[in-house]
Each structure stands twice: as structure tokens, then as C-alpha cells.
Design goal:
heterodimer, A: about 325 residues, mainly alpha, MetI-like fold, 2 strands, about 0% strand, B: about 400 residues, 2 domains
């Protein structure tokens, strides 16, 4: 029976549909394709050129590029182990601080805020996402760094037995010990970056939370759920993809942040696990610091570092968009 | 606060009160006991923390005080609520408090960053010369009554204008391409554009620095900075515009095709006008991002204290870059100038943002009164034109009616 239908289908070959769009339409398509191609060319040029210039340094350093901590390209010893770890640490601190704030803020705006306040709050958060990063850097440098010193000392004194919080050279028993061991740390830079990325993550999450289906909300209430019960059983599961996606989006921004970090940290070129201790590093700050004095080969090494950073943010962004797209709330949350 | 007495306890009582006379009942979920529990827990937590910090334990510091007080407050509030509520209700109250305080902390922290900048900028901003002079004549030790940031304002405006002149046409054509000429190539371009939104801004600057300045041998200039900003802004604008154009209802497009319109006329007369407010918003938000970026400009624009109106030659400074260079100085007056510059920059971003909100507050196809009026006028003119061609008088009252043809 199936063969029969196939037989008739074979005689009835689908005809090729062709409509002459006319000259103006052909011109329009050409222009549009040209625009798309131009953008594609620029974007590929950026990536390709980075790779091309980085190749010299990468081929000379080989795998040691990933394991060397020092950054002395002209002496032949350079690698991104220290700066990459520093970047990831700053981004992790930032995400650890920003995500609770963003989730709380997004839940407040979408579930708890009075309707009259809601529009204003949405605008405020979106505006905060557009505030230049140099402004956050100023706040961190001139206000926050001074205010966090007692807390940093407390963490180093009482939580110092956790390796991440240890501070070498700090002496809790000496009240006159210099406090400079607690400044310019990964923690300070991380909190500043957290304030930068919190609004970005928050606006993605709010968008997703507010799309939780009304029917399911009412169903939860009808079954006797409290407001928090409804949020836990409807809003959070529905918005899980958006929460992860928003977090990753913030992480991507945090990894690439330059000026806010550059203003605060005092760069070190060894792997610095101690987040409270002075001295931190990041790839973007390394580029901003060294591009001016770099030789031809040094430039190539910086390109390689930039390429590594770009690849990292690329992976994070693609992971974020695929998680958001695959989640239930993803289809509408673009 | 005075809601509890108005809320009858049982159904019988309620029935009685209804029969006596309809009293307006409050539908608020807030009860007096909730408020008492909240206030009581707050007072208890504050006093207990004060006791711990001042009398019992060797603790100090504002942040520590707040953290301990908040922890105690949560515990005490949970305890108070648990006296007359069951488990789920206690968890609901605690979650409400935690969510609301997290939201509050976020908005307050972000607001504080802005207010702090404005407050620190108050020393520089009242001087009129801050807006009318450059820093060519003023050294780091000069008082705030000499020198200003005119050079940075001019630089920012020129750089962003050039960057927009490059990105807006390209970005719009590309966004139209992604939606109106679908196919494998368009999908590939969309993937690449999405990947490039991940490009860190410093890498965009490094790219222009390595190509335009090192490889092609041009000097650092405003144009190089604009190119770096354009590379950074292009994927952002394309992505936002792509989303907006995707929101244009397919029925509008199909209606246009059904009338026999060609593709480009559909795009020009249906898709773009419908998406206009959204497209404007995406451009403005991209501009706000570009205007505040320091790192691409840091690598490509160079630094100067003089006003330079020519983007093609010589270093040209922008507002974020000027802020960055000012605060690197240890002099208090220079730092005050840095904060003043940051405040001006923020005001600029705020203006752009408000403009974007005013324009983009409506969805595609929703018109203001004036736009609607204009559209009705246009269709009346069309009807008159058609009528003039067919040699009959235009119908006065029903311009869209075609029965008279």
C-alpha cells in the first residue's frame, strides 16, 4: 500500500515554484545580503585577526601558555594561568554576590511589589544596567574599599582556616598591623563587578518570572498554597532556565569587565587563591595595563590572552542561550 | 494597622454584620499582628545586637552589625510568627521578608552608587567653567575654578556620532536581512552575531589598536575610538533590533504580500514603520552602552588635555576616559573633577534612557494620538487621490470605504 502511494508520488513530481521578484526586489535582497555579509565579514575579521596575531605567541609558548603564571613575553616566560584564575575568581565572587540580589530583586518586582511601584522599579533596574562601569569602579575605589576593611579583617581572623579566606602576612593579634593587606583584593573587585552584573541578571530573571502562567499560579492558590508555596512550586520551576541564563549572562559580563576591575586591583602574576588578600589579576586588566609598552611579540601574547578571554565568554554565552532556549520559559524570553 | 477589628472572626458574625448594614470590608492581606510581629522582631534584634556588640562580645564594624542584626531579626520574626501560625505560613512570612529585603538591598545599593557619584561630584559641578573650558591651561594643582571637561564632552559626542553613523545603517540592514531573507546563510550570520555579543569590550579595543594603529600605522584618534566602539556596539544593536523586528506580527506582512506588494515595499512601508519605536529604543540603548565604555577608548583614542574637534587626527578624549585619567591622580581636586565628569556622563546616559523609554514604551503598532491622527489624514489623502483618478468625488465620512469605487 505504501508502495502504491509512492508510485503515484513519483509520477507527480513536485514542481519547482519560481516567482520573478522583479528588479527592485532583487536589488533589495542583494543589499540585505550584502549588509549581512558585511557584518559577518567584520565579525569574522575580528576573530580571525585575533587568532592570526595570537598564533605567533601561542606557537612559541605551546601548552605552557596555559600553565605559566608569569607575564614576561619578551623573556619568553608568559602564560595565562594566573590571570585566568584571577578572572574566574573575580567573576565567581561577583556571581555569588549578584545572584541572590538578582533573584531577590526579580522576585520582589514580579511577585511582591505593589503594581504602582512595579513599572518604576523595572525602569530603575534597567537604567542601572546602563550605568557606565567606570562609575561603579569609582564607588568601589573611593567608598567601598575603605568600608569593607573591618569585615575583611574579621573574615581573615575567624575564617582564615578556610584556605580561600586566608591572608598571608596578616596578624590578627596586632591592632596596629597595616591594613593594606586587605585592600585591592579579589573580594572588593568581585563585589564591584557584582553590582554591575546584578541589574543585568535581574532584568532577565524578572522577565521570565513575570511570564509564569497565570492559570498555574491560580491553581496553586486554589490548592491552598501560600504565596511562597506558589512561588516555589510554580514561578521558580518555570523560571529555572531564565535564572540560569541570567546568571550566565552576568557571568559573561563579569569575565570581560575591564575598568571597574582595573581601578581596584593591584595586579599580581601568580595564582592568588586568597580572595581577601591584596593582589588580584584579570585578563582584561592585564591587557589594559600592558598594551602600551608591549613589543611586537608582547602584542601577540596580549592577543592570545584576549582570545582566551573571548573564548571563555563565548562558551559561557552560548551555554546561557542554549539553556534559556531549551527551558520552558525560553521561547518567549528572548 | 486598624484592620483587625473590622475583620469578623466567624461566618456567623459576618452574616450578622451584613444584615445590620453593608459595611465596606477591607480586602487587604495585612493584619495588625503581622505588623506587630515585624516591629517587635526588629526592635528585639536591634537591641540584642547592640548588647552583643557593645557589652558581651569583642565585635565591631557596621557591616558586621547589620549582618548579625539581620540574622537575629529573621530568627526572632520566625519565632513570633510561629506562635500563632503553622509551618507553611511561617515559611511564607520568612520568605516574604527575605525577598523584600534582598530587593531593597539591591535597589538601595545601586541607588547609592549613583547618589555617591553625584554627591562627590558636587564640588566640581557648580563651577560653570567646568563645562566651558578644557584642561589645557589647568594643572593638577589648580583649583576647580580653572579648567573643565569641554574637551571630553566634545570628544564623546563626536565619537558616538561617528560610531552611530557606522553602526545604525549596517545594523538595521543586517537585522532586516536576518528576518526578511531567511535561509541557511541568515541563520549562520545570526549565530555569529550572537557569539560576538560576548566579545569583551577590551578585546574590541585591542583589535582596532592592532589593526588600525599598529598595522596600518594611523595615529591614535577619535576615529579609531569610534571604530572600536562600533565593533563593540554593532552586535548589541543588531541583536536588539532583530528581536524587535521578529515581534512584528506576521499577519501584517502577509496582508501586505496578499495585496501584491513586493518584498522591499513590505519592509519599507509595513515592517520598519511598525517596529520603529522598538528599533529606536534598541539604538538608544546601544548608544548608552557605547557612551559609557572606557576600555576600547583607552586603547585607541590616546589622551589629551586640549580640545580636539577633529576626529581624524590627534588624540581625543571622551567622558569615561577623562574620568578614568582624573581619578588616577592623587590630587583631591583632580578626583573631584573625575567625579564631576562621571556625574555628567551619568546624566547623559539618563537622558538617553528616558528618551528611549518615552519612545519605546509602546509595543509595535500602538500609536500615539498624533501618530494616529497623521495616519488617518494620510489614508484620507489616499482615498481622495484614488477618487480623483477614478473621476468621482471622494466620500467624505468614510475615507477607508471602497464601496464607492
Amino acid at each position: 500500500m505504501t508502495r502504491d502511494t509512492r508510485g503515484t508520488a513519483a509520477q507527480d513530481v513536485p514542481r519547482r515554484l519560481y516567482a520573478d521578484p522583479g528588479l527592485p526586489d532583487r536589488v533589495f535582497r542583494g543589499v540585505a545580503r550584502g549588509g549581512g555579509g558585511l557584518v559577518l565579514a567584520v565579525m569574522l575579521l575580528v576573530g580571525g585577526f585575533l587568532l592570526y596575531r595570537a598564533w605567533e605567541a601561542l606557537s612559541r609558548a605551546g601548552w605552557s601558555f596555559l600553565t605559566t603564571e608569569a607575564w614576561e613575553p619578551d623573556a619568553g616566560r608568559f602564560g595565562i594561568a594566573a590571570v585566568l584564575v584571577g578572572t574566574v575568581l573575580i567573576a565567581l565572587v561577583a556571581v555569588a554576590v549578584a545572584v541572590p540580589l538578582a533573584v531577590g530583586g526579580a522576585l520582589y518586582i514580579s511577585e511582591y511589589a505593589p503594581p504602582r511601584l512595579r513599572r518604576t522599579l523595572i525602569s530603575v533596574v534597567d537604567l542601572m544596567a546602563a550605568v557606565p562601569s567606570v562609575v561603579y569602579g569609582l564607588w568601589g575605589l573611593f567608598f567601598f574599599e575603605g568600608k569593607i576593611l573591618p569585615t575583611a579583617r574579621w573574615i581573615a581572623t575567624y575564617l582564615g582556616w578556610i584556605p580561600v579566606f586566608r591572608v598571608d602576612g596578616a596578624d590578627p593579634s596586632d591592632p596596629l598591623a597595616p591594613e593594606s593587606v586587605y585592600t585591592s583584593s579579589t573580594l572588593v573587585a568581585g563585589v564591584v563587578v557584582a553590582l554591575m552584573v546584578a541589574p543585568i541578571a535581574c532584568s532577565v530573571m524578572r522577565e521570565v518570572f513575570s511570564q509564569a502562567p497565570v492559570g498555574e499560579r491560580e491553581g496553586a492558590y486554589a490548592l491552598g498554597a501560600t504565596r511562597w508555596g506558589m512561588i516555589r512550586s510554580v514561578v521558580l520551576p518555570f523560571g529555572k532556565g531564565g535564572m540560569i541564563g541570567g546568571t550566565m549572562l552576568g557571568l559573561g559580563r563579569a569575565l570581560g569587565e575591564t575598568i571597574g576591575v582595573y581601578l581596584i586591583i593591584s595586579p599580581v602574576f601568580e595564582i592568588q587563591w586568597h580572595v581577601v588578600q591584596s593582589g588580584a589579576s584579570s585578563v582584561a586588566a592585564l591587557i589594559a595595563l600592558r598594551y602600551g609598552e608591549a613589543s611586537e611579540f608582547g602584542m601577540s601574547a596580549l592577543m592570545a590572552a584576549g582570545l582566551a578571554l573571548f573564548l571563555m565568554t563565548l562558551v559561557v554565552n552560548f551555554a546561557a542561550s542554549s539553556i534559556v532556549a531549551r527551558s520552558r520559559s525560553g521561547a518567549a524570553s528572548e | 494597622m486598624t484592620i483587625a477589628p473590622e475583620r469578623p472572626a466567624t461566618t456567623a458574625e459576618r452574616a450578622a454584620s451584613v444584615s445590620v448594614g453593608e459595611r465596606r470590608r477591607s480586602v487587604s492581606l495585612l493584619r495588625a499582628t503581622d505588623v506587630y510581629a515585624l516591629l517587635g522582631a526588629a526592635a528585639a534584634a536591634l537591641s540584642l545586637t547592640w548588647l552583643l556588640f557593645a557589652r558581651l562580645l569583642p565585635l565591631s564594624g557596621t557591616i558586621g552589625f547589620l549582618v548579625v542584626a539581620y540574622g537575629l531579626f529573621l530568627g526572632l520574626y520566625g519565632l513570633l510568627v510561629s506562635f500563632d501560625e503553622n509551618g507553611p505560613a511561617v515559611r511564607d512570612r520568612l520568605a516574604a521578608v527575605v525577598v523584600q529585603s534582598l530587593g531593597l538591598v539591591m535597589v538601595v545599593a545601586l541607588g547609592f552608587v549613583v547618589v555617591f557619584t553625584l554627591w562627590e561630584g558636587r564640588k566640581a559641578l557648580p563651577h560653570l567653567n567646568f563645562f566651558t573650558q578644557d584642561m589645557a591651561e589647568a594643572g593638577p594643582l589648580d583649583p576647580l575654578s580653572a579648567g573643565g571637561i569641554l574637551h571630553a564632552i566634545v570628544g564623546t559626542l563626536e565619537q558616538i556620532t561617528v560610531a552611530l553613523a557606522l553602526t545604525v545603517p549596517t545594523g538595521m540592514v543586517c537585522a532586516v536581512f536576518l528576518n526578511e531573507v531567511p535561509g541557511r546563510f541568515a541563520r549562520f550570520v545570526r549565530t555569529v552575531v550572537e557569539a560576538m555579543t560576548a566579545l569583551p569590550s577590551i578585546v574590541a579595543g585591542l583589535f582596532i589598536y592592532a589593526t588600525v594603529i599598529l598595522a596600518l600605522g594611523f595615529d591614535r584618534s577619535g576615529l579609531a575610538a569610534s571604530l572600536a566602539l562600533a565593533v563593540m556596539m554593532l552586535p548589541i544593536i543588531i541583536r536588539a533590533a532583530d528581536v524587535v523586528i521578529r515581534l512584528v506580527p506576521g499577519t501584517l506582512r502577509e496582508a501586505s504580500y496578499a495585496l501584491g506588494t513586493s518584498r522591499w515595499r513590505t519592509v519599507w512601508h509595513v515592517v520598519l514603520p511598525t517596529a520603529r519605536s522598538g528599533l529606536t529604543t534598541s539604538v538608544i540603548l546601544g548608544t548608552a552602552r557605547g557612551i559609557g565604555e572606557t576600555s576600547p577608548v583607552l586603547l585607541t583614542a590616546g589622551f589629551t588635555a586640549e580640545i580636539n574637534g577633529d576626529p581624524l587626527s590627534g588624540p581625543q578624549v571622551s567622558l569615561p576616559l577623562a574620568t578614568f585619567e582624573f581619578v588616577k591622580s592623587p590630587e583631591p581636586t583632580m578626583i573631584a573633577r573625575g567625579f564631576g565628569t562621571a556625574a555628567v556622563l551619568m546624566a547623559l546616559v539618563l537622558v538617553l534612557f528616558v528618551v528611549a523609554r518615552v519612545i519605546g514604551g509602546r509595543g509595535p503598532g500602538q500609536l500615539t494620538r498624533r501618530q494616529e491622527h497623521r495616519r488617518v489624514e494620510a489614508s484620507r489623502r489616499d482615498a481622495e487621490r484614488f477618487a480623483a483618478r477614478s473621476g468621482r468625488p471622494a466620500p467624505r465620512d468614510t475615507p477607508m470605504d471602497t464601496r464607492s469605487e
